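Form 7-S
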Amino acid sequence: MSGYLKGLLVAAVVAVGLPAAGTADQPGEAGLVGVRMIWNQAGHNAFTGLVRFKDRWFCTFREGSGHVSHDGKLRVITSADGETWEPAALLTAPDKLPDLRDPKISVTPDGRLMLTGAAAQRVPPPVQHQTYAWFSADGKDWGTPVAICEPDVWLWRVTWHKGVAWGVGYSPARRDGNRLYRSADGRKFETVVEKLFEAGFPNEASLEFLADDTCLCLLRRDGQPSTAMLGSARPPYTEWTWKDLGVRIGGPLLVRLPDGRLLAAGRRYDGAVRMSLMWLDAEKGALREFLKLPSGGDTSYPGLVMHDGLAWVSYYSSHEGKTSIYLAKVRLPAK
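Output:
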């Protein structure tokens, strides 16, 4: 049997046990409906993105020999039902920066898929990173990548709002703060705020827009201090206020639910490292964990889509040994 077929067989039968608390048979509470490993073909499978497009699921992630290695490729897999997955595409670095990392996937206003990722090379300057964007009408043919933002700026995630792509970029090499970008087409990005936030080596960020067009920014920091920050701004998004959330997170994702609640996801470091789902209270500047997904060790970097009344969450974890891609279905309590 081929390695690919073995992977499909494993993905079809592996199910992780549900936790004792917060299970799906307790009405009114968040519950883990189910979780399964959906891919583990490479030595290290990590850093996910998830989207539903044309009645299919598309999940993207990095394949490499290790968490930090020089051979990263961006894998896209697809599924009709979220149970059985098949490969759709494998993207390789288009230049001399050989390691592709942290793919994020979204749907453009004109009805295409957009995938972003950074090519990396861990050598001294002049250039260590370049962000690229790919576009596809079917999730299989991604065409020629487009270099976006300046060299050595990592545009970590793109959020579309009213036909405009927004994102926060940072330089892992310079560690000189981050900046806010916007784009009308996802190909040419312009700087909106040159210095969005500077203290504590800010890096990965997730943007979300409220019904009144307020933009929120959930921001990871890895310096001193290392606690996450929450930024808020009104149009034209040039003046920001910030609150220290008091906890450290990694791989942040912020999603506004249809009922207006703010759902955050990412790695928590307090106690055992885990993949966590959290409620964000933007007024108080507080993150409250409500569900720990089966995870541990090298883990996090979620994608999240609301579908059929459930939160579908992609993430990666090494709690079962090999670092693999998982998909969880979570029932959220009523507001």
